[in-house]
């Protein structure tokens, strides 16, 4: 049964589980086929997580359904995105549509930011599509500022072995993280 925001009890958010990904979670990131074209992208990110180069968290409801995800790359060949020590890059932040506009995005961002600050990172960067106005509003509300235009050109191999090229103009946004509480 598909949930709608109005069907969630007030305590819904208190039951959310935010945890590191496990290999057996990977198929659920495909959302019943909607994102199966990213299967190899997800698998590669998972392998990077095993070597400590990427962090991947999932958002789960008590029924054990994954309703969201967020990836953080710790280092990159583009130090303005991630440099391995002071700057990390958030990407693939996705929440199922029926669970949006409930405050979950804000909660997840807070958890990611706190985790990154505890690891010693000072800044969190991300790219947001120029046509994704809802996400831009969330990031601005959470203190992210536009730093630059990103052409948004990248490629990946899909689940059928086809090389796909993406052009998704974006804004690079950044936030200075609060130091961890002592």
Description:
InterPro entries: Acyl_CoA_acyltransferase (IPR016181), GNAT_dom (IPR000182). GO terms for molecular function: acyltransferase activity, transferring groups other than amino-acyl groups. This is N-acetyltransferase domain-containing protein. It comes from Ornatilinea apprima. It holds the Pfam family Acetyltransf_1. The protein has 182 residues and is of the alpha+beta class. It has one domain (11-176): Aminopeptidase (3-Layer(aba) Sandwich), CATH 3.40.630. Helices cover 20% and strands 32% of the residues. The protein is built from three helices and nine strands, in the order βαβββαβαββββ. The strands form two sheets. Strands 1-2-3-4-5-9-6 form a seven-stranded mixed β-sheet, sandwiched between helices. Strands 7-8 form a two-stranded antiparallel ribbon. The chain is globular, with a radius of gyration of 16 Å. Mean pLDDT is 92; it is low at 1-6.
Summary tags:
182 residues, two-stranded antiparallel sheet, 7-stranded mixed beta sheet, Aminopeptidase, disordered N terminus, 9 strands, 32% strand, alpha+beta
Number of domains: 1
Number of continuous helical runs: 3
* Rounded mean pLDDT score: 92
Summarize the biggest pleated sheet: 7 strands, mixed
| Proportion of residues in helical segments | 10-25%
CATH topology: Aminopeptidase
CATH architecture: 3-Layer(aba) Sandwich
Oligomer: single chain
Give the strand tally. 9
What is the name of the CATH superfamily?
Answer: Gcn5-related N-acetyltransferase (GNAT)
InterPro entries: Acyl_CoA_acyltransferase, GNAT_dom
Pfam families: Acetyltransf_1
GO molecular function: acyltransferase activity, transferring groups other than amino-acyl groups
Protein name: N-acetyltransferase domain-containing protein
């Amino acid at each position: 049964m598909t949930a709608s925001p109005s069907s969630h009890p007030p305590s819904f958010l208190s039951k959310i589980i935010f945890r590191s990904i496990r290999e057996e979670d990977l198929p659920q990131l495909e959302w019943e086929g909607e994102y199966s074209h990213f299967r190899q992208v997800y698998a590669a990110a998972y392998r990077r997580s095993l070597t400590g180069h990427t962090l991947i968290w999932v958002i789960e409801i008590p029924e054990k359904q994954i309703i969201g995800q967020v990836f953080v790359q710790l280092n990159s060949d583009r130090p303005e995105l991630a440099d391995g020590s002071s700057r990390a890059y958030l990407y693939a932040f996705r929440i199922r549509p029926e669970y949006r506009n409930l405050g979950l995005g804000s909660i997840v961002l807070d958890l990611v930011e706190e985790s990154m600050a505890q690891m010693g990172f000072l800044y969190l960067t991300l790219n947001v599509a120029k046509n994704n106005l809802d996400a831009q509003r969330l990031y601005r509300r959470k203190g992210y500022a536009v730093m630059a235009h990103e052409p948004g050109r990248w490629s990946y191999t899909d689940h059928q072995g086809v090389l796909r090229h993406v052009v998704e103009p974006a804004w690079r946004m950044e936030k200075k993280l609060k130091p961890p509480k002592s």
